[in-house]
Amino acid sequence: MTQSNTPSALLEARDLEIAFGGVKAADGVSLTVNDGEFVAIIGPNGSGKTTFLNICTGYLKPTRGTVRLAGRDITRLQPRAIARQGIARAFQIPQLFTDHTLIDNLMLSIAARRGIWQALTPLDRPAYRDEAMDLLQLLGLETHANALTGTLPEGQRKLADITLAFALNPKLLVLDEPTSGVSSIERFEIMETLMHAARQRGLSALFVEHDMDIVEKYADRVVVWSSGTIMAEGSPAEVLKDPRVLESVVGVA
Ligand SMILES: Nc1ncnc2c1ncn2[C@@H]1O[C@H](COP(=O)(O)OP(=O)(O)OP(=O)(O)O)[C@@H](O)[C@H]1O
């Protein structure tokens, strides 16, 4: 096998453990995301999916185990430091300044990435504006550049939030239910746009998703959570046929 065929690990979580009042939300969880890979996390409510994302992005510290990004231990870093290392997160509820325009939100994100001392200087600089417009074009939002984000329909607000994550120049996108709360047509539109943009930039993605049609179409690999552990893992075609997975996640035996 040539070296170029060997997948290169980007995110490596090993043996993670955390409990809340006796409930183990992560109980020996290990997961790798390779360069350029799209990995979906599925599992019933309360199984620990968001807890895993919180550990990987620095919002929770595990009592055991490590998280590495491109070989570097990031387990104890704060969320901001992890973002600087290359993990950008978009939340289930978009985190936009709703009374500011989309391009202002993006220029703020770009300025923040470049450092606080620059964030104190005027935000509207030609370099920031050009970069923001490039990102809006990449995510198909250029006609909404001057709209207040609070006035955007939900699907576009979600894409806008994802655009902010792209503005951090990440290696890995972490997305908590990127398609929740929108119509099924819009779900596929969001995923098509997101996948295209991520492939263009060579990014990997880790996303929690409840819609199995989305998982089947867009995930390279799917990982199934159950009570703080991983119960199954593999290609969507294999995993979504597994009777244990169907019973536990999809609710059909
Ligand atoms: N900050 C916290 N404090 C107390 N308990 C928590 C906390 N975060 C998560 N838990 C508990 O840990 C378990 C896993 O929760 P988590 O939110 O990770 O599950 P989930 O799979 O993301 O669920 P959902 O699909 O409903 O979002 C649940 O029992 C939850 O109540």
Structure notes:
The chain is 38% helix and 25% strand. The chain is of the alpha/beta class. It has a 6-stranded mixed beta sheet, sandwiched between helices. The termini are far apart. The structure holds adenosine-5'-triphosphate. The site of adenosine-5'-triphosphate (ATP) has 12 residues, from β2 and α1. InterPro entries: AAA+_ATPase (IPR003593), ABC_AA/LPS_Transport (IPR051120), ABC_transporter-like_ATP-bd (IPR003439), P-loop_NTPase (IPR027417). Keywords: ATP-binding, Nucleotide-binding, Transport.
Number of strands: 10
Query: What is the first-to-last residue Cα distance?
Result: 40 Å
C-alpha-based Rg, rounded: 18 Å
Unreliable spans = none
Q: How much is the average pLDDT?
A: 89
Strand line-up across the major sheet: 6-7-8-3-9-10
The major sheet is characterized as: 6 strands, mixed
Bound molecules: adenosine-5'-triphosphate
Quaternary structure type: single chain
Proportion of helical residues: 25-40%
Structure annotation, total helices: 10
Summarize the structure.
The chain is of the alpha/beta class and 253 residues long. It is built from 10 helices and 10 strands.
Q: What topology emerges from the helices and strands here?
A:
Layout: E1 9-20, E2 23-34, E3 38-42, H1 49-56, E4 64-69, E5 72-73, H2 79-85, E6 87-90, H3 102-114, H4 116-119, H5 126-138, H6 154-166, E7 172-176, H7 184-201, E8 204-208, H8 212-218, E9 221-226, E10 229-234, H9 236-239, H10 243-250
Parallel strand pairs: 3-8, 3-9, 6-7, 7-8
Antiparallel strand pairs: 1-2, 1-4, 4-5, 9-10
Helix pairs in contact: 3-5, 3-6, 6-7
The structure holds adenosine-5'-triphosphate (ATP).
Adenosine-5'-triphosphate binds next to strand 2 and helix 1.
